[in-house]
Write a structure and sequence with these properties.
The protein is mainly α. It has a single domain, classed as Sodium/glucose cotransporter (Up-down Bundle). Helix 4 packs across helix 12, helix 7 runs parallel beside helix 18 and helix 17 packs antiparallel against helix 18.
C-alpha cells in the first residue's frame, strides 16, 4: 500500500507541477486552446494517442470485446493504429493544419462556421459537441473506479473527485501546453505499463503458448458449440468485430478533441514525424490492450453478475503490488489525458463558438480565457455527477456510453469535415443534413433501441452505420443543393497552393 500511495503522489505532483510551469503559455486564447500552434511532433503524437486511449479502452472495451471475440479482438487495436492513427494523420494532418490556420479557426465548430460562411452551422455543431462529450467523459471515471476499488478499496465518489480536481488544476493553469506535456509523460507510463502487464499476465498462465492452448479449449454454448473460436483468426462474430473496428478507428477522424491536435502542430516536418510516432504508439497501446483482453475467458468471471468492466481488474488483481500500482497509474494516465482533452475541447467550443459573437458580441482575450476556465470546471462537475449516478444505478456499460458518444460525434462530423477539406462541392445544406442525421440517429438509438433492426440495436453498430452513411449523404445532398460562390471557394482553397514555410530547426 505504501508503494502504491508513494507512486500515486509522485505522479500527481508531476502533473500539477507541469500545469503551473505552463501558465506562461496560457495567457491568451491561441496559447490556452492551441499552445500557440507551435507544438512539435512528439508532444502532438502522444497527445493524440493518449486522448485516443483511455480507461474506456483499457477497462471497458478491452474487457468486453476480448470476452466476446477472444484473441481476434487484437484486430481492433490494429485498426486503431493503421486507420485511426496512420490514415488520420496522412489524410487530415497537413490539410487540417493548413486550412484551419488560413481560416483562423481554433475549434471544429468554428471551422464549419467559417468554411461554409454559416454561423448556424457553428452554433449547431458546438451544441452537438457539448452534449455528446458528456457521456464520453462520464465513462472515463467508471473505468478508473474499478481499478481504484481493487487496489485501494477506495470509495468510488472519492476516486472521481480526486481525478476531477487534479485534471482541472493542470488544465486550468496551463491550458493546451500543460495538457500536451502531461500527455507525453502519461504516454510513456502507458507504453511501459501495458508491456509489463501483458508479460506478467501471460507468465501467470504459463506463457503465451500455454495461455493460447487454454483459450483454444474454451467453449461457450450461448455463442457456439465449436471449440477454438476464441483463439481463431476472426473470432466468433466477424461482422460485429468489423463494426467495432470501424467505430473505434474511423471514428477518430470526426472527433473534435482528436482533430484539434492537428490545429496545434508546429509545421509540415512535424506532421511527418508525428505520423510515425502516433502509429507506433497506437500499435503498442491499443494492440496490447485488446490482445490482453483476449485472454479474459481464462479467468473465473461471472460477467452477468459483475459486468464486462470487471474483467481486466480481475486479470491483474493477483499481480505484484508494484505491477498493480503501475496498472493503476497507467489507467489513471490514460483517463486524465483523455479527460483533459475533452474538457478543453468542450470549454473552448462553448466560449468561442456559442458565447463569443453570439451572446457577447465583443469579448476581450482575457475574458475569453477566464470563461473557458470556468466552463472547464462546469464540464468536469457535470460529467462527474453523471458518472456517479450512472454507476450507482448501473444504467449501462462503459462501451455503450462511449459508443453513443463516438457514434453521434463522428456520425455528425466525420463526412462533412474530411470531404470539405478535399472537395469544393460540399454544400452548407449537406453538412446540416448530416449533423441532424448523425446526432439524431444515435439519440433515437439511445432512447428507442428496440425500434431499430436487430443489427443496429447495438450503439457500436449504429455508430459505425452513421459514419459510413454520412459519406454517402454529404455527396448526394451536395449534388442537389446550391454550392458556395466560386470566388469564395477559390479563396478558401488557395491555402493549399502556397509553399510551406521552412521547418524550424528544432522540434520537441
Amino acid at each position: 500500500m505504501i508503494t502504491k500511495v508513494v507512486m500515486l503522489l509522485l505522479f500527481f505532483g508531476v502533473m500539477i507541477g507541469v500545469g503551473i510551469y505552463c501558465r506562461k503559455n496560457a495567457t491568451d486564447v491561441n496559447g490556452f486552446v492551441l499552445g500557440g500552434r507551435s507544438v512539435g511532433p512528439w508532444l502532438t503524437a502522444f497527445a493524440y494517442g493518449t486522448s485516443y486511449f483511455s480507461a474506456v479502452i483499457f477497462v471497458g472495451y478491452a474487457g468486453q470485446f476480448g470476452w466476446k471475440f477472444g484473441l481476434a479482438s487484437t484486430w481492433i487495436g490494429l485498426g486503431n493504429a493503421f486507420i485511426g492513427s496512420l490514415m488520420a494523420w496522412v489524410l487530415l494532418g497537413r490539410r487540417t493544419r493548413v486550412m484551419t490556420r488560413h481560416l483562423e479557426s481554433k475549434t471544429m465548430p468554428e471551422f464549419f462556421g467559417t468554411r461554409f460562411d454559416s454561423p448556424m452551422l457553428k452554433i449547431f455543431s458546438s451544441v452537438i459537441v457539448f452534449i455528446f462529450l458528456i457521456p464520453y467523459t462520464a465513462s472515463l471515471y467508471n473505468g478508473l473506479s474499478r481499478l481504484f476499488g481493487m487496489a485501494f478499496e477506495m470509495d468510488y465518489t472519492v476516486c472521481i473527485v480526486v481525478m476531477a480536481i487534479l485534471t482541472g488544476v493542470y488544465v486550468i493553469a496551463g491550458g493546451y501546453m500543460a495538457t500536451a506535456i502531461n500527455d507525453f509523460i502519461q504516454g510513456i507510463v502507458m507504453l511501459v505499463g501495458i508491456v509489463a502487464v501483458i508479460l506478467a499476465v501471460l507468465a501467470s498462465q504459463g506463457g503465451f503458448m500455454a495461455a493460447y492452448e487454454k483459450l483454444a479449449n474454451v467453449t461457450d454454448a450461448t455463442v457456439s458449440d465449436m471449440p477454438g473460436l476464441f483463439a481463431s483468426f476472426f473470432g466468433p462474430d466477424p461482422f460485429s468485430l468489423l463494426c467495432v473496428v470501424i467505430l473505434t478507428s474511423l471514428g477518430t477522424w470526426g472527433l473534435p478533441q482528436m482533430v484539434q491536435k492537428f490545429y496545434a502542430i508546429k509545421n509540415e516536418s512535424a506532421i511527418r514525424k508525428g505520423t510515425v510516432i502516433s502509429t507506433a504508439f497506437a500499435l503498442i497501446v491499443a494492440g496490447g490492450c485488446y490482445f490482453l483482453g483476449g485472454f479474459g475467458r481464462l479467468y473465473d468471471i461471472d460477467v452477468k453478475t459483475v459486468g464486462f468492466d470487471a474483467i481486466i481488474p480481475a486479470m491483474i488483481e493477483k499481480l505484484s503490488p508494484f505491477l498493480v500500482a503501475v496498472v493503476v497509474i497507467l489507467v489513471l494516465s490514460a483517463s486524465m489525458s483523455t479527460l483533459s482533452s475533452l474538457v478543453l475541447a468542450s470549454s473552448s467550443t462553448l466560449t468561442l463558438d456559442l458565447i463569443k459573437g453570439t451572446i457577447a458580441k465583443k469579448m476581450e482575450e482575457k475574458t475569453q480565457v477566464l470563461i473557458m476556465r470556468v466552463f472547464i470546471v462546469v464540464f468536469i462537475v457535470i460529467s462527474a455527477v453523471i458518472a456517479i449516478i450512472q454507476y450507482k444505478s448501473n444504467v449501462t456499460f462503459i462501451a455503450q456510453l462511449m459508443g453513443v458518444s463516438w457514434g453521434a460525434l463522428a456520425g455528425a462530423f466525420l463526412a462533412p469535415f474530411i470531404l470539405s477539406m478535399y472537395w469544393k462541392g460540399v454544400t452548407k445544406l449537406s453538412v446540416l443534413v448530416n449533423f441532424i442525421f448523425g446526432a439524431g440517429i444515435m439519440t433515437v438509438n439511445l432512447f428507442a433501441r428496440s425500434a431499430f433492426p436487430t443489427v443496429l440495436q447495438s450503439p457500436i453498430n449504429c455508430g459505425a452505420f452513421a459514419m459510413l452513411a454520412g459519406l454517402i449523404i454529404v455527396p448526394v445532398v451536395s449534388l442537389i443543393t446550391p454550392r458556395m460562390k466560386k470566388d469564395r471557394l477559390d479563396q478558401i482553397f488557395a491555402c493549399f497552393k502556397r509553399p510551406e514555410a521552412k521547418p524550424e530547426n528544432r522540434d520537441l
